[in-house]
User: Fold this.
Amino acid sequence: MSKKKKQGTNLLYNMIAEANSYDDVIVMGRGDPDFDTPAHIVEAAKDAMIKRHADYSPPEGLLPLREAIAERVKRVNNIDVDPATEVVVTNGGQEALFLMVVAANGPGDEMIVPEPNYNTYADSLAFAGGVKVEVQAFAENDFRADPADVRAVVTDKSRSLLLVSPNNPAANVISPADMREMLSIAIEHDLIIIADDIYDLFVYDNFEHVSPASLPGGKERTLTLNALSKAYSMTGWRLGWIVGPADLMARVRELKAAISGGASIISQYAGIAALTGPQDPVEMMAEAYRRRRRLVLDALDEMGMSYGVPQGGQFVFADISFSGLDSGELAQRILTEQHVLAYPGSAFSKDRKDYLRMTFLQPEEKLREGLERMKIAMQSIMAEQQS
Amino acid sequence: MASQTKAEILRQHQSNADLNTPIPAQVMRGQNDLSADGIIRPLDERIIAATAEALESGQTHYVDVPGIAPLRAAVADFLGSFADAAYQGGNIVITAGMQEARFLSIQMIGAQFDNIGIPEVVHPGARKALGTRARNVISLPVDAEAGYLPSPESIAEALAGGCRLLFLESPSRLSGAVYSDQQVAAISQALAEHDAAAIWDQGLAVWVDDSYDSLAACDSEAERVAVIGEAFPGMGLASWFIAYIAAPEAWVPPMQSQKQIMSICTSTASQYGALEASQLYRAEGNQQLASLRQTRAGAAQLASDSGWTVLGGAACNIIALRPPGGVDAALTDLRAAGYDAADGALFGAPDIIRLTVSNSTADALRALV
Ligand SMILES: Cc1ncc(COP(=O)(O)O)c(C=O)c1O
Assistant:
């Protein structure tokens, strides 16, 4: 691990520890929905403990769960998969991510990564010995990664292209036109697409998310992940999946067996209940995020912060360069002075010291209070700047 | 047009023999599946109640990467009282099952050493974990007469030859054989002499009905031995995928980082279930041991009466046999009678089969002999 990376991680660990020490802290940092898991899912888990606690699960997961996943990705993402051979259940989206990156990339292989992005991709690639090739995008363009920029960095070592949409932390959604263009580039240069759809149920205004695997020629070269964590508020259950073409999925299955074996049987039965049971809790949560997003954006406007309009996801990535402070310093001051935790952009990338990530994962009242406090912190920082 | 990139990925994966090593199921797929690592056990109502309570009270969110603090403390306590080990809660990483414990320890502790010594006969999960990223592997010869454990002499030889990290099982996951107290002391001394370290899989130690000698007990400062194992086996949690790594403090951060990268944390239901199991364990210990010992002895008698060699093993949950007519014939006959056994070839011992000890083990053997 490089020294820089370590400092970023330590900064975050220290801030989280500090946040935990305040009784009145308002956490707008970690991507963990405030809602508890819907009750019918917990009930299904209890039922599984009584009746199915010792069921065997193959590394790829229980067939009924894989069937429910196949039905879901068809319904939501328009991806056709065979539950017998084209689905692997994982310990959350995180394990899915690691498996996809390690399955597709070996030592020296290049993965093209639109930045900013979820940093575990870089960490997983480092495990595989691969090389990250960045394509930068910025708030003024709502973090749109230009396909032309992607095309420009392709080399004969390019192996894979990462497409996280809606994105974390940038919250942009790749437009259908851009997604088609990204796929053309992948086909032209024979790249594997690593697609992360984990926020696909949270798309705002008139934006539209298209899974690359649903487009003609997409499925055969695309591994797509998703998870129950964000949509069903099930982060602690550790349940996700990968879907993709049978030949690559057979390799993913072996890797999954090598790093952890199956997923907990209780989480798998809970997952079946989540996917096949009533979906209104998901809609209720999505509606709440829509309202909270508005609240956050209005407050940021008041503070004079610019940001990429969050087209999807559960957060906003705001440009804080006007404060004159590095994002680490700014986040630290907001935390220490006002007991509000937001993540510094430097935790995502060394090039994002001018950004702050704020999640909408608190009840509205708390969010309002957090934003109010943040405003006070910003005012005092700006006053110092001016004097 | 077919993708060359994909063809290349498939070629690389398919040529990776370690990565493609088949491994036994973590739990029996039914009463007649005697090929699995874990046996089917009922779940104590108190585990169900405690887990349900945790979930209902909102323990459905991310928790600390290395595990919830009370479970880490409970595992450290358990290792202290059971194996006389010196670990504290901060030394423990809770993992999503035994294979994650193998993977994290072999890859992340392994990354701190130039090479790793692996017994020629070992649980295939160790080879599978090695297949995920190339390592410099030194093969440790084993002694078939000693239940396929590498002898302390061959270990000392490997260390003298430059091996700096060992992966050892005691009990052996094939035969159930264990190292004696003197052998453990000899291995410990050799490690100290060569400033080397060890990952010690003692997951099956709870099935040993005599006293058990752990290498961790010789590492009084918890400096050079990491222990891995299932969390509270025999409590019905085999399918909940919950295990641990206990390691010297300096080895924890790289495993914790990798755990964050690969799964963030272990399922809360599994952790709260294991936490309750740790309390019951303390009160009641492993109550199944006596009955398993008897079942195993009966199976051993049946097998040896019909001319099969029974390998010496101290762990009561498995029995390893050398069928006189060869393994293939024995596995075929077992399958014809409706039973599955683990092929010793998976472990590196092609003339052996391994059966889990359960109510149907004797029936399976009767069907054969
Ligand atoms: C883009 C993205 N992918 C994957 C994950 C992993 O989520 P989990 O493992 O909780 O399902 C996250 C979590 O924050 C994420 O933001």
Remarks:
- Chain B touches chain A through 68 residues (CB under 8 Å).
